[in-house]
Write a structure and sequence with these properties.
The structure is a homodimer.
Chain A (H helix, E strand, L loop, with lengths): L11 E12 L2 E8 L9 E2 L2 E3 L7 H13 L5 E8 L16 E9 L10 E4 H4 L11 H15 L4 H15 L10 H10 L21 H15 L16 H12 L5 H10 L3 E8 L7 E6 L3 H4 L14
Parallel strand pairs in A: 1-6
Antiparallel strand pairs in A: 1-2, 1-4, 2-3, 2-7, 5-6, 8-9
Helix pairs in contact in A: 3-4, 4-5, 5-6
Chain A binds a DNA duplex through α8.
InterPro entries (chains A, B): NMN_biosyn, NUDIX_hydrolase-like_dom_sf, WH-like_DNA-bd_sf, WH_DNA-bd_sf, WHD_NrtR
Protein name (chains A, B): NrtR DNA-binding winged helix domain-containing protein
DNA sequence: TCAAAAGTGTTATCCTTACACCCATGT
DNA sequence: ACATGGGTGTAAGGATAACACTTTTGA
């Protein structure tokens, strides 16, 4: 990297965290109130500027999160650096100054809200991403609007491109790919269907401050992909859990239902978990054996994860 | 993101690009000379500071690359933002000022060097990553040194952890995983076996300026992973090519040899390519049919790529 | 005629998927 | 008794990996 003197227009660098958890079969994200935003956009991710006192980016992030929410972070992973100048298009002119934001994904075990931070379901912000109860009702309306947007393209070629993207991301062709959360959000953004892009209603989900919903979409997509080849789900689980609980968490994250028998077999024969001696007698039915994550799997398998068995019924 | 006033210690933000190509069966990276570095570290990636005139990060990157190398970029993807303050540990004290660098991966079709930029083989910087001619000779010496480093750990527990990491990344357990380029480099760095970390020799590969070799390792790992589920190889190929050429490029990128027959079948039945009418009569043997990338595959398959058939012989 | 690379066919094996069924507990 | 969730077995189908073999050119 070439050396640069700090100039009057040195960029502002922010740190933001999508902190995810799963409790009571519902996937959650930790949000904080954000002042000075347009109506309906007062929710945001924990965030703050990078300061000289921060030894590293990640340590700075942990400091901000702890200060704003009281939550201490375990697993943390860098997601993406958002840096377009027009991030600020909704705010005042910065006179050519850049505003970067380095976004992180964090996975935590427990949901204990602190200060004025609150846990919210992911699907508050992305209602069309939850297919556990079948095709979500919001989806048809959303796709219809997208298709209208494709119709009104300037050229037929552009219209075809838009149509292709809609089919690809919203599943007309080749089925639903649960990982394409960001692509779906960006399509909605481009089509002007989200409040962040000027839409009047929240049909396509609750808005967030700044570009925080884009960050959250990036985080969900990354996590949905990653559970398939890294045992990151266990960062969200208690030390001991039943296979049923594990399945419901994976379903909550991915937004699709899985085939029960195959899920169990997969988990078992991959060596991802091992039995404990105890069982639990929870809600109805036969008591279930409690399992724990088998840490050794990291040394045995090149890509230990939960390839989703794609099944329909429970 | 919270608002921050630009302070005296506003961070410096740099942009850097790992520009990759594949010519003559050799994977290449575009490098530029870097002045003011310690001996043996005068090679670097095209890079420059983010400037107020740059509309976006990516546009800034393209501008710097074009100015420094004359190369215009096609496919560009953000890799990672490196931001530890101690990036500068080899240089002077910055008085608490951060120096971030946003690294990008770029794939280009042709290798036409310009100015004082030069194309170099990847394996100049990571000799142990090339297994096309069998186990590379450098590898044994490198692993031996790593194991000595594990021996001299402060505690037995730490020694075991180090041993596990060596086995995992360098393939004692579960075979060689060609994607773990960064993990291998970081292990070598921690063990002090690379010049960037103070080593006297270049047994583990040619050093680079700043943390550019870490960026390059990130890029190679990402590309090696991505060819398996996205048709990015074709960004490196000419418009028409033979299946043999395609295979040799994939082998060059991944550093392992593939099973010929299965590779061809895979490429064909995945619908990744289609025949053209022409054939080519190149170096020895029967003339081969020229193929081209089938763009429609993007609409048909959820994850079109080249899962490597893992074969030994050609 | 032989080397070298292109290209085709076949088979054994493993993994995925789907279906059917039994088990243990609370009400 | 029966609803509910836990848990096991097995068979069909498709993808993968390994093998052997033919074709077409240039030297």
């Amino acid at each position: 990297m070439d050396e640069a003197e700090p100039s009057a227009a040195a960029p502002l660098v922010g740190l933001a965290a999508a902190i995810l958890a799963a409790t009571l079969d519902e996937p959650r994200v930790l949000t904080v109130p954000v002042a000075g935003q347009p109506a309906g956009r007062g929710e945001g991710l924990p965030a703050g500027p990078l300061e000289p006192a921060h030894p590293t980016l990640e340590r700075g992030l942990r400091a901000w999160v702890e200060r704003q929410t009281g939550q201490s972070l375990g697993y943390v992973e860098q997601l993406y650096t958002f840096g377009d100048r027009d991030r600020r298009r909704d705010g005042r002119d910065e006179g050519g100054q850049h505003a970067l934001s380095v976004a992180y994904l964090a996975l935590v075990r427990e949901a204990r809200p602190a200060a004025d931070a609150t846990w919210q379901s992911w699907y508050r912000y992305f209602p069309y991403e939850d297919r556990r109860a079948g095709r979500p009702p919001a989806l048809d309306a959303v796709v219809a609007r997208l298709e209208a947007w494709a119709e009104e393209a300037a050229s037929p070629a552009e219209g075809r491109r838009r149509g292709d993207r809609i089919g690809l991301t919203f599943g007309a062709a080749g089925g639903w790919n649960e990982e394409r959360v960001l692509e779906r959000y960006e399509l909605l953004f481009e089509a002007g269907l989200v409040p962040e892009a000027g839409a009047a209603d929240s049909l396509a989900g609750q808005a967030m401050a700044f570009d925080h919903r884009r960050m959250l979409a990036t985080a969900l997509g990354r996590l949905r992909g990653k559970i398939k080849y890294r045992p990151v789900v266990f960062e969200l689980m208690p030390p001991a859990f039943t296979l049923g609980q594990l399945q419901r968490v994976v379903e909550a994250l991915s937004g699709v239902l899985l085939h029960k028998q195959n899920f169990r077999r997969l988990v078992a024969q991959q060596g991802l978990v091992e039995e404990t001696e105890s069982v639990t007698a929870e809600t109805g039915g036969r008591p279930a054996r409690l399992m724990r994550f088998r840490r050794e799997v990291l040394l045995e398998r090149p890509a230990p994860g939960l390839r989703l068995p794609a099944g329909r019924a429970g």
